Amino acid sequence: MGRLWLSLLILAALFGPAAPQETMSAKIWAQPPAPTKYHQAMLICEVTRDRGPQEFLWEKQGSPVPLQKGPDSILLIPSVNSTHVGTYTCTVTSTQGRAVASYTLWLNDLRSSVFVFPQESKTAHVQVTVELELPLNNFTVCLRSFTDLTRPYSLFSYATKKQSNEILLFKPKPGQYELIVGDKALSFTVPISLGESEHICFSWESSTGIVGFWFNGKPWPRKGLQKGYTVGVPAYIVLGQDQDSFGGSFDAQQSFVGEISSVYMWDTGISNSGVMSAMYDSPNQTPIFGWRNFPYEIVGEVYLKP
């Protein structure tokens, strides 16, 4: 009887119902996440649950002919402009089946525009609606501000669920800027210029901890902060408030009142000439996001004005 049961178990294993196979799927993501006008961009068709040979068909809605067909999962756009705006599809086929993904490329050029924060608030801010795929071992942030505030205020806040002060650009008082990385702070002293537009850039690199700072295009002596640190993802990025928790816990006494514009972020360092280019909204290197294609959502009383 024992042998009979063993034989039945073997037959059931051989001819019984097979375990269901997971269906292959695809998604498209852009590099950089917010492709910048007149810079290179890549659309990447990422396939999951399939390891075999794959063929990718790239098409654009409204185009009578395919853009690309073959084994390459990347569609390269050498210089993004208004003709590239639209919905793209990637159809991937393999021995395991077929999957389709879509992606809408847009351009939101804010050149010659500013965000106006009219009054102190514990809610009003601009969220930068970009999804970062990878942690940061290097970054540069540049922006322009115009205010007559003399109390402390936040300009740029990058928070993760583990660390609310992953990156913070803060001005504690006139004549001083502060960069916080991983909850550690570093300050730079600048000329006091109340009621005048100020352009700043901060850069940081993990391998050395070196921080670069530029004020109105002029470099300041470099300093060190958080050597070996890695800035995490996913991130919630806001302008005009200091996050004390992921996406919130704002303090009205640290809110920004005035104008912010020309906001850029890179996952690299920056040169002196790169800073000058960013000052005039003509970046010479591709940012993660920037003013020539700015991904944003206004929360509360903030206005976008020419």
What portion of residues is helical? under 10%
The class by helix and strand makeup works out as mainly beta
Distance between the termini: 88 Å
- β-sheet strand percentage: 35-45%
Q: Tally of extended strands?
A: 22
Please, what is the average pLDDT? 92
Any idea what the radius of gyration is?
A: 25 Å
SS field, number of helical segments: 2
If you had to describe this structure to a student in words, what would you say it looks like?
The chain has helices at about 1-15, 270-280, and strands at about 25-30, 40-50, 55-60, 70, 75, 85-95, 95-105, 115, 125-130, 140-145, 155-160, 165-175, 175-180, 185-190, 200-205, 210-215, 220, 225, 235-240, 260-265, 295-300, 305. The protein is mainly beta. The strands form four sheets. Strands 8, 10, 15, 16, 17, 18, 20 and 22 form an eight-stranded antiparallel β-sheet that branches. The chain has a seven-stranded antiparallel β-sheet with strand order 14-13-12-11-19-9-21, with no helix packed on it. A hairpin with a 7-residue loop joins strand 11 (about 155-160) and strand 12.
Give the helices and strands, then pairings.
Elements: H1 2-15, E1 25-31, E2 41-48, E3 55-60, E4 68-70, E5 74-77, E6 86-94, E7 97-105, E8 114-117, E9 125-128, E10 138-146, E11 153-159, E12 167-173, E13 176-181, E14 184-189, E15 198-205, E16 210-215, E17 218-219, E18 223-224, E19 236-239, E20 258-266, H2 272-279, E21 296-299, E22 303-305
Antiparallel strand pairs: 1-2, 2-5, 3-4, 3-6, 6-7, 8-20, 8-22, 9-19, 9-21, 10-15, 10-20, 11-12, 11-19, 12-13, 13-14, 15-16, 16-17, 16-18
